[in-house]
Write a structure and sequence with these properties.
The protein has 95 residues and is mainly β. Helix content is 9%, strand content 43%. The longest helix is centred in the C-terminal third of the chain and has 5 residues. The protein is globular, with a radius of gyration of 13 Å. The two termini are 23 Å apart.
Length: 95
């Protein structure tokens, strides 16, 4: 878990086991990797429309639903035109 400590107060992208993508500022986490995101939004992918960004604000994600967490390069991310990006939604992870 020590690697996750370095992400606190930084912008992260989280992909969950059910195929959702959340982006926000990591404010904290516990021993079971439940995470608290602030200023968060969910990115909803579509093949016909751009990426929709649903504003969530303060959001908690259960650790048992997290597939991957990574630090987001805010400089590169801010240059993306989400209205022009098309992508298939991720499928849920099958256990």
């Amino acid at each position: 878990m020590s690697g996750l400590e370095s992400y606190v107060n930084n912008t992260v992208s989280i992909i969950t086991a059910d195929g959702r993508n959340f982006v926000g500022t990591l404010k904290g986490f516990d021993q079971t990797v439940n995470v608290i995101l602030d200023e968060s939004h969910e990115r909803v992918y579509s093949m016909t429309a751009g990426i929709e960004q649903v504003v969530l604000g303060l959001h908690i994600i259960r650790g048992d639903n997290i597939a991957i967490i990574g630090q987001l390069d805010e400089s590169a991310d801010s240059k993306l035109d989400f209205t022009a990006i098309r992508g298939m939604p991720l499928e849920p992870v099958v256990h």
